[in-house]
Write a structure and sequence with these properties.
This protein is about 30% helix and about 25% strand. It contains 22 helices and 31 strands. Strand 6 (about 110) and strand 7 (about 110-115) form a beta hairpin. Helix 3 crosses helix 4 (about 80-90) and helix 8 (about 185-195) crosses helix 9. The protein starts with a strand and ends in a 5-residue tail after the last strand.
Length: about 650
């Protein structure tokens, strides 16, 4: 059974034949030569013939094979063949589809060069190298003399008439470079001449079958010689290869079965593509990505879809099963802060591969001559990252920024936290002509506005490395006369909170901020809201925030629970003071997040009793009560006496997710 007949004399015809093979659609493929047959895939679903057919033979073939569709993918110059296919379809009642190249007005189309005149052909050939077989006649001979070294490079084939030979000789064509012969010339004779003269180009006019045009084209294709054709294809109506595949998918209800590649394109310019990425992109039928990426990578004839939303990309691919090879373009490297993670989830179940690219980190560090094996790597592009704190506690930090004011804002914060000795390296628009790399102190970038495509590398020789565990010494905090959660109590309380690196936390009754600061430093990608009602304590909070460069610590002056109402839902909450509002505070916290983790410090027994009553009645689980007594040695003369401090009750629980 044959569903599709394809007349395949071009690359487009071969692509349709390969599509039929991949999708297991039975077809009959007609080519004009044995060479054309060799280029087609061997397939159990394809029958291939290489006989040239006239109109009557085509009608017989259509009646015998009884296809649903006849696809005409012959060359634009094969006007008579196209006319015969059309007429045969009309007389046998078959659906006719004409495939045309994406842009027939292009000067160069794969292995063909088109020109409107011999003068234009000569101009095009002046930028090439290699011998030329010119078959445009003696009247055009003088035009080839404009080519450099034409007497050696051009082989002129003309009629074998004495006056013709004399005229061409006077133009400088003599000896082996002047071929006087009478046609017709078979394909075999043309091929032998091309090989003997080692010609890379063959110049001919579009003369039709009477002028032996097809024999020249077949010979050139067989010898790997590029035809330079004077004239233009007929103006025809038709569809592209991709449109033909789409039509076949719809007619036979085909689903997407192609290969998807997430291709890292480096910094954006074609020069920054790896050889593997370049090969993948070049062979893709569809490119998907942001506009700047697609414009940098697309080639003539490729379809493209401008989009970076993972779900919309997945939906588009599902709606377009005609594509066998799709490349989704990702800037830098797909494994380095890219959209690859979401795309892999959205495309689950499909055949997807990932091709690496050069990341902005690798490119930038090489440009400034720095190693990056000991650099803290992060990103502030579309996410929260406490860069000030990271720079304060790490000697080397690299970050993607992604906004015009990113560098300026960072510089101002570093200056605000007295981190003026930090050295900043900034880079933007990598690989583009406007690429810019600068070095300086924070003060050099206070008014800087850069490109959104920017990164920063910071070196802090005076960094204060964080301890591996909780427990900043009490003496490190600015305290004055405000009560503070002591180091030992703070350490146990923080361990009970079970902080994540991106947690959203509350410290209610923050006091000096000792707990708030430690939470902020332990959750560099999160947020900590410190709530304090007393003026003196609130001023100390400001000072300690600045001292520890806790940029992700947000200070709120007010009383809970009112001060909590507009805040985002918390993951963890520490309550050091409730001002008698414990039940209202706990109810609001569970309302905001029914699974919130809560740790409460109590000194007075009345507060312990009140808190226990609340915990019993509210929707919490994982309840634990720890009573901690701390004694510290004090020197008295030559002796050390242990001095006990007030015992602390540490109550912890987790919302059970069910509400009240």
């Amino acid at each position: 059974m044959c569903k599709v007949i394809v007349f395949a004399g071009t690359t487009e015809g071969r692509e349709i034949a390969e599509f039929l093979d991949r999708r297991q659609i039975p077809g009959h493929i007609c080519v004009a030569t044995e060479y054309g047959e060799q280029l087609l895939p061997e397939s159990p679903v394809l029958e291939i013939s290489h006989q040239r057919l006239d109109l009557e033979e085509m009608k017989v073939l259509f009646q015998e094979k009884d296809p649903d569709i006849v696809v005409d993918a012959t060359h634009p110059y094969a006007a008579q063949v196209t006319e015969n296919i059309k007429k045969a379809c009309e007389e046998t009642g078959k659906e006719y589809i004409r495939i045309l190249r994406e842009n027939q007005e292009m000067k160069e189309e794969g292995d063909w060069i088109f020109a409107d005149s011999v003068e234009e052909a000569v101009e095009l050939l002046s930028h090439t190298e290699g011998n030329i077989l010119a078959t445009t006649g003696s009247k055009e001979a003088a035009k080839y003399t404009k080519l450099e070294n034409y007497q050696e490079r051009v082989f002129l084939r003309v009629l074998s008439l004495p006056k013709v030979a004399v005229a061409c000789s006077q133009q400088g064509f003599q000896g082996k470079n002047l071929i006087c012969m009478q046609g017709p010339f078979s394909k075999e004779l043309n091929a032998a001449m091309i090989r003997q003269l080692n010609c890379k180009y063959l110049v001919t006019k579009m003369s039709g079958d009477a002028g032996g045009f097809q024999d020249k084209m077949d010979a050139a294709r067989e010898c790997g010689c590029i035809p330079v054709v004077i004239g233009r294809p007929l103006k025809e109506k038709g569809i592209s290869v991709n449109q033909c595949r789409r039509l076949l998918c719809g007619k036979y209800s085909l689903k997407f079965q192609g290969e998807i590649t997430l291709a890292g394109i480096g910094m954006g310019s074609r020069e920054g593509l790896t050889l593997e990425a370049r090969k993948i992109i070049s062979s893709a039928q569809l490119l998907i990505g942001a506009k700047r990426m697609v414009e940098a990578c697309k080639e003539p004839g490729q379809d493209f879809f401008i989009e970076y939303n993972s779900q919309k990309i997945a939906e588009y691919i599902e709606e377009h099963p005609e594509y066998d090879k799709i490349a989704i373009l990702l800037s830098g490297d797909p494994g380095f802060y890219s959209g690859a993670k979401k795309l892999l989830q959205a495309l689950e179940g499909k055949k997807v591969r990932v091709v690496p690219g050069i990341s902005s980190l690798v490119y930038f560090m090489s440009r400034i001559g720095k190693s990056w094996d000991d650099v803290l790597i992060t990103s502030a592009h579309g996410r929260d990252a406490d860069l000030v704190s990271l720079i304060r506690h790490n000697r080397k930090v690299f970050s993607i920024l992604g906004t015009r004011d990113g560098i300026r804002n960072l510089a101002r914060k570093l200056a605000e936290y007295d981190m003026k000795n930090v050295t900043l390296y900034t880079g933007e628009c990598f690989s583009y002509p406007e690429e810019k790399i600068r070095k300086g102190s924070p003060e050099d970038f206070l008014d800087y506005e850069g490109d959104p495509l920017s990164v920063v590398y910071a070196e802090n020789q005076e960094c204060q490395e964080l301890l591996a565990v909780h427990g900043i010494p009490d003496s490190a905090f600015i305290r004055d006369k405000v009560p503070m959660t002591k180091e030992e109590i703070r350490t146990v309380s923080l361990s009970k909170l079970r902080l994540g690196r991106d947690s959203v936390c509350y410290d209610i009754g923050a006091g000096t901020g000792s707990v708030s600061v430690e939470m902020a430093l332990r959750a560099p990608y999160g947020k900590v809201f410190a709530i304090e009602k007393k003026e003196l304590a609130f001023e100390l909070l400001k000072k300690n925030k600045k001292k520890f460069a806790a940029e992700n610590l947000i200070l709120i002056q007010g009383t809970a629970p009112e001060a909590l109402e507009e805040l985002p839902a918390p993951d963890q909450v520490f309550i050091g003071g409730s001002s008698g509002n414990m039940r209202q505070i706990l109810e609001l916290l569970l309302q905001k997040n029914p699974q919130v983790r809560i740790v409460i410090n109590c000194i007075a027994l009345e507060t312990v009793a009140e808190t226990l009553n609340c915990i019993k009645e509210l929707a919490v689980t994982d309840t634990e009560i720890v009573q901690l007594s701390v004694s510290k040695a004090k020197e008295i003369g030559s002796y050390h006496m242990m001095m006990g401090e007030n015992p602390i009750y540490i109550l912890s629980c987790t919302g059970n997710g069910k509400g009240r």
